[in-house]
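Bug report (template v2)

What were you trying to do?
Predict the complex of my protein with S-adenosylmethionine.

What happened?
Run completed; filing so the output is reviewed.

Input:
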Amino acid sequence: MPGASADVGGDGRQAQNVRHGAGNAARVQTRRARPQDDGVAALGSRHSDGSAGDANYGVIGAGYAHYRRPDPHIAEFIGRALGDARTVLNVGAGAGSYEPTDRAVTAVEPSAAMRAQRPVHLPTAIDAVAGSLPFEDGCFDAATATFTVHQWPDLAAGLAEMRRVTRGPVLILTCDRDALDRFWLDDYAPEVTAVEASRYPPIETIAKALGCATEVLSVPIPLDCTDGFGEAYYGRPERLLEPGARLACSAWSFVDPSVTARFVSGLTQDLESGTWDAKHGHLRTKSYFDGSLKLIVGRVES
Ligand SMILES: C[S@@+](CC[C@H](N)C(=O)[O-])C[C@H]1O[C@@H](n2cnc3c(N)ncnc32)[C@H](O)[C@@H]1O
């Protein structure tokens, strides 16, 4: 098994040593999580597949890896911010998007459905939650959390844990709730935008909770973005008519099915009549969209 790693169990209490990174023999010291550390259990129960956030990936996760492939342009932003970090912790790792293959990665992912979708060349993910990371203080050079913090039951606890176990930069890839309405989806399904706006923590809240100096980078979204979060389809509206594409964005699982039905019929009609193109057609050839995507980089000053 490449980059074998350990399953710390659903309750995150078992002490483990973790070998990480394909062929990399480096070991990360782990600590025995205290029962009272179990952030999620304290705040609410995990879903049946272990999902520990507001979305149940046991229900919606099956097609995730197909629709949410890491995008090379976004990956470049992350690679640059990681600098010369050799050991990287990825929290809420899902199917492994944006995990560098040239560094030793340790992945944490509570959902079994998501862990099962990790490609074989990536390390097996540890079953643990952001609010109670089973690692010693300062044992990673850097840490990442991509498209996940908006789902955590206790944002402050999760970010404090990331900061605690990391010596160098902590990277949070997320969406700016105040910029979500730049995307035309808001015309067709404002309920989805509203759900997203209520879930994404304000950028300043994240920056403050990291408790260190932060830099906030805007990440322009490429026209052919391979990571199908909502705005990825800004210039390819037809793609959002695919049920699987919507399912890969958890926001759709929080709106009434009537909203989805109205969205599909409204957008289909507007595409057929040319109404969408008359208003938004310029986006079909726009190379990058300045949407809501942000990379927050927290650095401890030395
Ligand atoms: C939208 S997916 C993103 C996955 C991956 N980071 C990516 O960029 O494709 C959100 C992930 O966060 C995970 N997650 C939710 N709540 C979590 C928590 N409390 N601790 C750790 N991970 C969590 C979910 O299980 C899911 O895999």
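What did the reviewer find?
The chain is about 30% helix and 15% strand. The CA atoms of residues 3 and 27 lie 11 Å apart.
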